[in-house]
Amino acid sequence: MAATGERGYMLLVIMLGMAMLLFALAATAPSIAQQIKREREEELIRRGTQYARAIQRFYRKFGRYPGRLEELEGTNNQRFVRRRFKDPMTEDGEWRLIRLGEAKATPQGAFGAGQPGTGQPKPASGGTAGSSGTSGAKPEGPAPVPVSQLAGSQKDGPKFGGAPIVGVASRSVESAIKEWNGKTHYNEWEFVYDFSMDTGIRQGQPPGAPGQPGKTPQPPAKPTN
Q1: Residue 188 · residue 125 · CB < 8 Å
Q2: Burial of 191: CB neighbours in 10 Å, binned 0-12, 13-18, 19+
Q3: Which residue in 39, 166, 208, 217 is deepest, having the highest Cβ count within 10 Å?
Q4: Which has the closest alpha carbon to 145: 166, 171, 161, 127?
Q5: Is 138 helix (H, G, I), strand (E, B) or coil?
């Protein structure tokens, strides 16, 4: 009888320990899930910003936006993105492509937001984001038009079934933990390259205009006597 009582006591202790462990796991599960979600949010910002920067490099090279994401993986034997990134907020990993004229977020820099993760515009050296870098100086020519206001077409470059791609966004409509660029849903976080906000591009010129990166500069006309 004593042995039976001891076995019953040990079983009770084990069951009590398991119950306490399950209780502890249940208490910490929400915080663990919250932490995982925060990490996925940061990964979304990192990957989206990499795509926006890849579009910037592509634009500076060819003077146009890409017609599809595959162009960023290899065009003229050049890679503009290290590898294909998936949307970390969806199961299939497919991005929502933002084409010319479809950007909804108000541009606050070349990538739709300033420093990644802050949602604040990042001032350029010698001036504010989107300025020419000279205090009080105005860019020559007409004011640049943000990508959100451009028509969904582009004169040069392939179309591939749609307008050129200016950025990406998540397809997830889930509410975010943090607010990014004034938006609280993942599908509203737009990672866009806006040439009109790029201080590295001569302002006042449309996409593909002569004198921009990727174009052969024209020699100045010789003065006539």
Answers
A1: no
A2: buried
A3: 166
A4: 166
A5: coil
Torsion angle (degrees, nearest 10) of CA 133, 136, 139, 144: 90
Phi, psi dihedrals of residue 95, rounded to the nearest 5°: -85, 155
The token pair at 214 is 């990727």
For the chain, strand residue ranges (E) read 96-99, 165-169, 175-180, 183-185, 191-192
Q: Which of 47, 133, 131, 130 is nearest to 95 (CA)?
A: 47
Both structure tokens of 186? 């993942």
CA–CA separation, 57 vs 48, rounded Å?
14
What pLDDT, in 10s, does the model give residues 84-128?
Answer: 999 999 999 999 999 999 988 665 566 655 433 334 334 333 333
With cut-offs at 50, 70 and 90, classify the pLDDT of residue 12: confident
User: pLDDT tens, 123-171?
Assistant: 333 333 333 333 344 444 444 455 655 544 444 444 445 789 999 999 9
* DSSP states of 47-81: HHHHHHHHHHHHHHHHSS--SSTHHHH-BTTB-SS
Beta bridge partners of 167: 98, 192
